[in-house]
Amino acid sequence: MIRGATTADYPSFAELFRELGIDDPTPSAERWSSELAHHTLISERAGDVDGYVTFIALSEVGHVRNLVVAARARGTGVGRDLMKAAADRLRARGIGEWHLNVKVDNTPAIRLYERLGMQVEHRSTVLRVDVARFTELPHAPADALPVSPEEDDDIERTLDLLGGRIAMMRGKPGHVLVQLRDPSTFAAVGFAAFDPSLPGAMPFRVARAELAGTMLAELAKHTTNPRIQLVIEDDRATTDLLLRIGGEVRLELLHYRGALPD
User: Fold this and answer.
1) I want to staple 54 with a disulfide (CB 3.0 to 4.6 A). Which of 20, 40, 46, 199 is the partner?
2) By C-alpha distance, which of 200, 207, 244, 238 is closest to 22?
3) What is the pLDDT of residue 22?
4) pTM to 2 decimals?
5) Band (171; pLDDT cuts 50, 70, 90)
6) First to last CA, the chain
7) pLDDT beyond 90 at 47
8) What angle do CA 177, 182, 184 make, to 5 degrees?
9) Rounded to whole angstroms, how far apart are CA atoms 212 and 170?
10) Pair type for strands 248-259 and 119-130
């Protein structure tokens, strides 16, 4: 049975979240109740929760945050059923396309997504970088500014971010949104959604690699942690620059997109 999640599902969610094998801490019960549960579908068989999918409708597309199936239920169709149920709900909201990220070595999940008609759009790298080494980076001139809602569309179009993504990040408690603007043209040249509790930024987007130091210097003001984690999407030049100052690769991801299946 596929059903909507409730606050009472938190223990099962927390247990399954660890199956993701990522560095992110397990979301708190408070965050589950206030932010995640109403975007989550649960697979339950004979009273036993064996999987979940968390997804959100952005302005024009759907984004699948996480799909998790308990080890005991893998290969039984739970993942497929959860994804199709999520697709049905997105379609009911007028959405026709969805996106997600998956680890490059998660072969069963990749096989499922491709069977659902999704295709790879780009590769992303999750890096952890020492704050003390930010001074070794170039700091191209740019104005670091907060982001107001009326600027979302301009930033998303200019930096090729999914429409509605900035608004989604704004809704996350404690997140700091930072933009970079060219001092001459005032064009958007960078954006980061920074979570000081991790600490980390997703997305971390700069128009040119030499702006990475400028953005990181601003993010460093919001944490005392000696390291910051970054999700670099489809940007080999910035990834290579951060690797040269000792950035540690934590994950390699594939970004998939596709039309919702029938």
Assistant:
1) 40
2) 200
3) 81
4) 0.89
5) confident
6) 20
7) no
8) 145
9) 21
10) antiparallel
DSSP 18: G
Q: Where are the alpha helices (DSSP H) in the chain?
A: 10-17, 29-31, 78-92, 107-115, 152-158, 165-170, 212-219, 236-244
- The CA distances from residue 199 to 119, 152, 229, in Å, are 31, 23, 6
CA–CA gap between residue 147 and residue 122 (Å, rounded): 26
**Residue ranges of domains in the chain, CATH in brackets:** 2-95 (3.40.630.30), 125-256 (3.40.630.30)
Structure tokens at 40: 């989550």
**CB within 8 A of 202, min separation 6: which ones?**
193, 195, 230, 231
Burial class (CB in 10 A: 0-12, 13-18, 19+), 184: exposed
Residues 157, 188: Cα–Cα separation, whole Å: 9
- Condensed to tens digits (0 to 9), the pLDDT of residues 137-158 reads 999 999 999 999 999 999 999 9
Average pLDDT, rounded, for the chain? 95
Phi, psi of 198 (to 5 degrees): -75, -55
Give me the amino acid identity at 249: V
Q: What's the confidence (pLDDT) of residue 149?
A: 96
24 Cβ partners below 8 Å, 6+ apart? 198
Give the tokens for residue 241: 């620059």
